[in-house]
Amino acid sequence: MSALPVSYVAAADARSRLAGLATPPGALGLLGETAVWLSAAQGVCPPRPVPNVHVAVFAGDHGVAAYGVTPFPSAVTGLMVRAFVDGTAGVAVLARQHGAGLRVVDVSVDADLDGVPAEISASKVMRGSGAIHLVDAMSHEQTDAALALGAQVADEAIDAGADLLIGGDMGIGNTTPAAALIGASLGVSSEQVTGRGTGVDDEGLRVKQRVVANALRRAGMRVKDPHDRLTALGGADFAAHAGYLMQAARRGVPVLLDGVISVACALIAEEIQPGSVAWFAAGHRSPEPAQSLALDRLGLSPLLDLGMRLGEGSGAVAAVPLVRSAVTLLTEVALLSDVLEP
Ligand SMILES: O=C(O)c1ccc[n+]([C@@H]2O[C@H](COP(=O)([O-])O)[C@@H](O)[C@H]2O)c1
Ligand SMILES: Cc1cc2nc[nH]c2cc1C
C-alpha cells in the first residue's frame, strides 16, 4: 500500500491565490503555507473548512520507565486513561473547546483498566512494551498487530467523517523510546536526542542518555529497517500511532502532528510508506530536542511554539484554530487586483 498523492494542481492554484491576496507577499507566513498544504490535501482551492477534527490517543506503558528515565510511575498511564474518558485530561479539555472528537485506545497499558468502557481495551496488543535497553520492545507479530490496529482506528474516524486527524500519546516513559527511535532514524547520538520529558533532573537526564545509548547499541544494525526499528526500540503504542498516520495518508486525510512521540511515528511512517509526509503538518514544537531534529528531517515547520510538553495530542489540538484561520484567510481575503481596481 502507498500514500495517495496530494494534488499539485490545487497546491499551485492555492499558491497563486495566496500570492494574489491583498496582503504583502508572504505576509501570512505559516498560515498561508498551511492553507496551501490543506488545498493540496483536499484537492481544492480555496480549501474546505475542517469542522470534523478527530483525535486518537494511543496509550501504552514502557518497561524502560522502571529504570530512572522518568520521575513518574507507570501506574499514572492507566490513571490518565480514566481522565481521558472523564473528559478532564488536558487534551480532552482542548478537544471539547474546539469541537474535536476524542478517542483513547489502550494499545499496551500495563494495568487492567477497571471501570472504563471495555471497548477502550478491546484490541489491546500487549501489556507494557519491553525495556528497550535490555530487550526488544515487542515481537514482529505484535508490531504488525499494532500497525493494523492504528490503521483500523484511522479508518473508523475517516468513515465517520473526520476531515483532519490528530494522533496523541499517553505513556509514562515514552519520551525514551521516542528519543531512541529518532536517534536511530536520523543516525544521531543519544546526547543530541534525549530531553527531559516530564521533567527529569540532571542526574535523571544522564541516566536517560545512557539508556538511549544502550538501546541504540543493543539494537545495532537492525535499526536500518523501520519495521525492525519499531520492534526493537519503539512499542506497541508507537506502532499503532504509526499505522494510524500511514492509513490517513493512504486514505487521503490530512494530519496535524503533535510532540516528540507523534513526530517519531511520522518519521517511521514516511520511511515505511514514502509520500506520507505530504499529508502531515506540524501542530507545535515540543521542547524535546529530538522533535525539532525530526521536524527538520521531515521539512515541517510547527504552527505553535508554546513550550508545551504535555503530549496527548494537546499541542496539535491547540493549533486547530490556526488551521481554521488559514482556511478562512485564503477563502475570504480580497484579491489585491480587486482592491486596486474596484
Ligand atoms: O509531546 C511531547 O513532546 C512530550 C514531551 C514530554 C512529555 N510528554 C508526555 O509525558 C509522558 C512521557 O514523559 P516521560 O518523562 O515519562 O518520558 C507521556 O505521557 C507524554 O505524553 C510528551
Ligand atoms: C499527570 C500526567 C499527565 C500526562 N499526560 C501526558 N503525559 C502525562 C504525564 C503525567 C505525569
SSE inventory with pairings:
Blueprint: H1 8-20, H2 29-42, E1 53-60, H3 75-86, H4 90-97, E2 101-108, H5 140-159, E3 164-170, H6 175-186, H7 190-193, H8 202-219, H9 226-233, H10 236-251, E4 255-257, H11 260-272, E5 280-282, H12 289-298, H13 314-318, H14 320-332, H15 336-340
Parallel strand pairs: 1-2, 1-3, 3-4, 4-5
Helix pairs in contact: 1-2, 2-14, 5-10, 6-8, 6-9, 6-11, 6-12, 10-11, 11-12
Feature tags:
binds 5,6-dimethylbenzimidazole, Nict_dMeBzImd_PRibTrfase_sf, globular, EC 2.4.2.21, single chain, alpha/beta, Rossmann fold, 5,6-Dimethylbenzimidazole Phosphoribosyltransferase, Chain: A, domain 1, 2 domains, binds nicotinate mononucleotide, 5-stranded parallel beta sheet, 342 residues
Molecular structure report:
The chain contains 15 helices and five strands. Helix 11 (260-272) packs parallel to helix 12. Helices cover 50% and strands 8% of the residues. The protein has 342 residues and is an alpha/beta fold. The chain has a five-stranded parallel β-sheet with strand order 2-1-3-4-5, sandwiched between helices. It has two domains: 8-48 and 328-339, Nicotinate-nucleotide-dimethylbenzimidazole phosphoribosyltransferase (CobT), small domain (5,6-Dimethylbenzimidazole Phosphoribosyltransferase, Chain: A, domain 1); 53-321, Rossmann fold (3-Layer(aba) Sandwich), CATH 3.40.50. The longest helix has 20 residues, at 140-159. It is globular and about 70 Å long. The protein binds nicotinate mononucleotide and 5,6-dimethylbenzimidazole (DMD). Nicotinate mononucleotide binds next to strand 3, helix 6 and helix 11.
